[in-house]
Amino acid sequence: MDSLPLPLPGQSLLARFLTPEVFETLKDRETYFGVRLSHLIASGVKNPDSAIGVYAGDEESYTAFAPLLDPIIQAYHGLGPEDRHVTDLNPAHLEAENPDPEGRFVLSTRIRVARNLCCFPFGPVIGRRERRMAERAIVGALGTLEGELAGTYHPLPSLDEATRARLVKEHLLFKAGDRFLEAGGFNRDWPDARGVFMNAERTFLVWVNEEDQLRIISMEKGADLGRVFARLARALAVLEARLTFARSERLGYLTSCPTNLGTGMRASVHIRLVRLPEQEVQAIAEDHGLQVRGTHGEHTAAEGGVYDVSNKRRLGITEVEAVTQLAEGVSALIRAERGA
Ligand code: ARG
Questions:
Q1: pLDDT tens for each residue of 292-317
Q2: Among the options 97, 286, 298, 303, which is catalytic?
Q3: Which residue's CA is the closest to the ligand 1 atom numbered 7?
Q4: What gap in Å lies between CA 277 and CA 167, rounded to an integer?
Q5: What is residue 2's predicted lDDT score, i.e. its pLDDT?
Q6: 259, 265, 293, 314, best to mutate for ligand 1 pocket (most atoms within 8 Å of CB)
Q7: 119 an active-site residue?
Q8: Average pLDDT of the residues in 164-182
Q9: In a designed cystine with 167, which of 123, 173, 303, 337 is the match (CB 3.0 to 4.6 A)?
Q10: Which residue lies with its CA nearest to atom 11 of ligand 1?
């Protein structure tokens, strides 16, 4: 893999890298859990407007289908075939300061990591029984959290529609799987064995069996990135002692979507920038390695000048670096907004 083929406008990474040769090499491969090329590419084939277009069906997909996934990983994260991912979840290593101590721009801060359980198939091929086993193991581990992190698990089927809709609106719960996940097979048996764990203050949450088996989330109002990160790290230390997460030495934590590999971490703020034109928000964010989403997450619009800004790279940088990158980019956005 010396040089990657150049992208065409609007082309997904799948379309760019699934060449006839790669297809020939991979077309008859199958992993231990029965993952085939057709599982990996289903979402991107059905949704030609995908940015990426592939999901891994299990840990082994990342080796079995490496001729397709490695170039995608390199193009998205900049991680070359020889690079190794490094983890640093130590909050003491974080030097970033609160970028908005007066609370004038940043509404809230949210850091999440994606995890899957070792030795279980991922969302695209997991069966009902395995999904329930995963839920049980995860909920058991969550039950050992104490103090601020202690909370309650709400299985999705137990929530009435009004409660479910309110939790989604408050950014506490995932929506029903989007068309990308739908085409990828993630929504089978919905809503069975899905749910959300929440602490009393709603500052620590875990989504179970959505795009990944765990989405572990620390969030609060304001811009105290250090506190949000420290809370997440505390929770992870407890959960890692109880659960074994899918992980590889080269790619770090393994996730269904290649964008989330490595740290699995998306560190984000909701920031209100009413004066700065949207293009400038985009440009400044990009300069700092950040991506911009709408107010209600991926594939939504920014409402009232409120943007969701987060690290784009999750692999090949440490968790501490991802949070630092966010702090620096947010400071730059605030400087520009003040000057606009
Ligand atoms: N599969 C979708 C695409 O390729 C989403 C990719 C990133 N988002 C995610 N939630 N994993 O555009």
A1: 998 787 778 788 899 999 999 899 89
A2: 298
A3: 259
A4: 31
A5: 55
A6: 259
A7: no
A8: 93
A9: 173
A10: 257
Active-site residue flag, 130: no
Q: How far apart are CA 225 and CA 239, in angstroms?
A: 21
Query: Of 36, 293, 313, 314, which is the active-site residue?
Result: 293
CA of 338 to the centre of ligand 1 (A): 33
Four-way CATH pick for 91-339: 3.30.590.10, 3.40.50.11540, 3.40.50.2000, 3.20.20.80:
3.30.590.10
- What average pLDDT does the segment 50-68 reach? 98
Extract the tokens encoding 316. 């090949």
Give which of 50, 42, 39, 65 is closest to 16, Cα–Cα: 50
Question: Cβ contacts of residue 215 below 8 Å, gap of 6+?
Answer: 112, 113, 114, 115, 174, 206, 207
State mean pLDDT over 86-97: 94
13-76 CATH pick, 1.10.135.10, 3.80.10.10, 3.40.50.720, 2.40.50.140? 1.10.135.10
pLDDT at residue number 338 = 95
pLDDT at 179 over 60: yes
Is residue 176 within 8 Å of 187, Cβ to Cβ? Answer: yes
- Pocket residues: Cβ below 6 A from ligand 1: 43, 50-53, 180, 211, 257, 259, 298
Find the mean pLDDT for residues 257-279.
96
What's the whole-model pTM score? Answer: 0.95
For tokens 């506190």, the residue is 227
Nearest ligand 1 atom to the CA of 255 is 11
Instruction: Give the start-to-end residue ranges of the domains of the chain.
Output: 13-76, 91-339
Of 3-7, 113-117, 127-131, 174-178, the range with the lowest mean pLDDT is 3-7
